[in-house]
C-alpha cells in the first residue's frame, strides 16, 4: 500500500467512518474547560496505583540511610528537647499543668506529620515528572501518596509519645477515642495545603523555596511551644482559623486532659481545613490538564 493511501485511511474522517461501520462509538479526547468536576471516582479506580505510590515513598524515604525509620522518632524528640530547654527551662513557658516535655511532644507528633507531608507533597508532581509525561492516571494520587505515607512515621512517633507519658506518669484520658478524628483533621489540613502548593509548584518553581520558610512560620504560629490558653476569648476562637491549632490542642486535650476549651476553636479549625481541602482539590483539577506540558 502506498504512503498516500495509508494517510487517507488514517485521517480523522476515515477513522470515524470505520467506527460507525463497526458500531463503535467514537471517543474524542480533549482538554476540559472551566471549572471541572472532581472525579474522585477515578482515584478509587486507581487505588492500587495509590497503594504502590505510598509504598514507594516509604521505601525511598529511608533507602540507603543509616538510621532508617529512627528519623521519624529523632525529629520530634530532639525538637522537644530544644523547646524544653529554651522555652520550658529558660523562658518558663506555662504548660497547662502537665510536664513541659510531654506538653510539647504531644503537639510535635501531629505537627511533624503535617509538616513532613506538606514538604514531600508540595514537590511530588515535579519529582514524578517522568511518570506524568508517559501515561495518564489521576494526578491527585501523587500528592495523596506523599501525605498518606507519613502515617507510618506518625505511628512510630506516637508510640514514643505513649512511652514518654508512661515515664512521666501521665495516663491518657477517656478522650483518647477522639484521636482518629483529630488525625483526620491533620490529614485534611495537610492534603488541602499540599494540593494548592503542589499545583502551584508546577507553574512556579519558587514554591519549593518558599515551603520551608512557610513551614517555619506556621510552626511558631501554632501553639506548640506555648498554650493557646494565653489568649482570651474571642481571640482564642479566631486563633482556630489556623487549623493546626485545633489539631495540636485537640491532641493535648485527648491525651493529657488539658482544660483548654475546644468547642468554638475546634469548629473554626475544622471548617478552615475542609475549605482548604475542597478549594485545593478544585484548583488542582483545574491546572491538572497542563501538568504534562509544563512539568
From TrEMBL:
Pfam families associated with the record:
ABC2_membrane (PF01061)
Q: What is this protein called?
A: Transport permease protein
Domain of life according to the entry: Bacteria
Q: Which GO biological-process labels does this protein carry? A: lipopolysaccharide transport
Entry's transmembrane regions: 66-88, 100-119, 140-170, 176-197, 209-226, 261-284
**What PANTHER family has UniProt attached to this entry?**
INNER MEMBRANE TRANSPORT PERMEASE (PTHR30413), TRANSPORT PERMEASE PROTEIN (PTHR30413:SF8)
Keyword Repressor in the entry? The reply is: no
Q: Which organism is it from?
A: Candidatus Manganitrophus noduliformans
